[in-house]
Amino acid sequence: MVKGIECIIERELSFSKIAVRVLSVGEDYLIVLEGGDSPHIGGSVLAVPRPSLTGEGMSCTSSVINVSGHKDEELLRLLAEKKCMSSNRVTVCTGGFHKDGITGKQIKEVQRAAADIAESL
């Protein structure tokens, strides 16, 4: 059973908005990313915590499902892995960001916003 929303983080971009919702599901986490003109599910990342192979700290093993033609994996993986490693809990991140005609500069802005959100999880 879903316990509830842990947090909602939104960032205003120069051309749009990105939003991330974190929900607790038992001891684990579900993260939903959405933004742009057409929020959607472009993929999902499952991150499972494990001890780092270096023997220091935590890491995770991730599995990815991409919807054909979508490029949301980078954002989803970043959010899932950061939350997984910081919480030592299984984490799933799903969703997508879409903006018609997005420029390279705007893509970088979305990536920076997602990285900022990931650090705050």
Structure at a glance:
The chain is α+β, with helices and mostly antiparallel strands. It is built from two helices and six strands. It has a six-stranded mixed beta sheet with strand order 1-2-3-6-4-5.
Structure characteristics:
single chain, alpha+beta, 6-stranded mixed sheet, 2 helices, 26% helix, 45% strand
Helix/strand structural class: alpha+beta
Can you summarize the main beta sheet?
Answer: 6 strands, mixed
In angstroms, what is the radius of gyration? 14 Å
Task: Report the mean per-residue pLDDT as an integer.
Answer: 94
Question: What are the low-pLDDT stretches, counting only 5+ consecutive residues below 50?
Answer: none
Helix-strand topology string: EEEEEHEH
Q: How many β-strand runs?
A: 6
Number of helices: 2
Q: How do the strands line up in the largest sheet?
A: 1-2-3-6-4-5
The percent of residues in helical segments reads 25-40%
Note down, in words, how this protein is organized.
This protein is 26% helix and 45% strand. It is built from 2 helices and 6 strands. The chain has helices at residues 73-87, 104-120, and strands spanning 2-12, 17-25, 28-36, 43-51, 58-66, 91-98. A hairpin with a 6-residue loop joins strand 4 (43-51) and strand 5 (58-66). Helix 1 runs parallel beside helix 2 (104-120). The longest helix has 17 residues, at 104-120. It is globular and about 45 Å long. The mean pLDDT is 94.
